[in-house]
Predict the 3D structure of the following.
Amino acid sequence: MTKLYDCRDAFAAALEDVAVDDPRICAVVNDSVGSSKVANFGKRFPERLINVGIAEQTMVGLAAGLANSGKIPFVCAAAPFLTGRALEQIKADVAYSETNVKLAGQSPGLAYGELGPTHHSIEDLAWMRSIANMTVIVPADPIETDQVVRAAASTPGPMFLRISRMGVPAVHDEHYRFSIGKAARLREGGDVTLIANGVLVCRALEAATMLAAEGVQARVLNMATVRPLDEAAVLDAAAETGRIVTVEEHTIYGGLGGAVAEVVVSHHPVPMRILGVPGTFAPTGSAEWLLQHFGLTAQGICDAALELVGAKV
């Protein structure tokens, strides 16, 4: 059986590691020590873990103040509340002011499935991507998550990191090197390109295997950085495969699919399918059930690709 990983573990371990060598690193939480898995960080660096309680606006504003005093704060909170409740502070105190704050949205997308629409974070990429100066990154596995944390710590400026709790396999090996703004080509193919990030990357790879059995060769791109987008990789996909399917654990409006479509329609129009939550509130149910409900599965991705290439589903 393939081993599955919680990317929050890789996030927490990497945060502790960079904090050892850089005393500026600190963590700011909203009573989310457990859910962000930073309890051990607090034990190792008690003076560098600030818990403001359930006060997200205060949390982000305080982090901006810490950054202005020379610290590098990682704000660790459930993605729906970090982005939804503190959006004004993120816009004005972090992005507009260009403070060196790293926003770590934990358990995004549909991960809180049974807790329902109040806890589903399916708008966060659209909100964050629309804010000037904000880098937006969605790692796909623990290897990439580790490298994303290190890149965030060493790169000045506002960032939003989307850290999944849903179990995922490793899709990268030890030779992988993450670079902000660069997509990773995980599989070659000339008939259609599958572009995914986060927990959907492993499902896109599985869909590519299913497509190969149908005689369709699918390129797979892990588009971890949503902003700045790797426009060159998108345009190469459009020119060389002629068809693109995007898939994300997010509404179809304004996220990865929207970002890719903006590039495609402006420079090299090709047929596309944008897979995600279709502009509705997601119902209550397990995370796995919700992915199946919205067709965010290997089979769903395969079917969308087959439709584009004109094969029978």
Notes: The first strand starts at residue 25 and ends at 29. The chain has a mean pLDDT of 97.
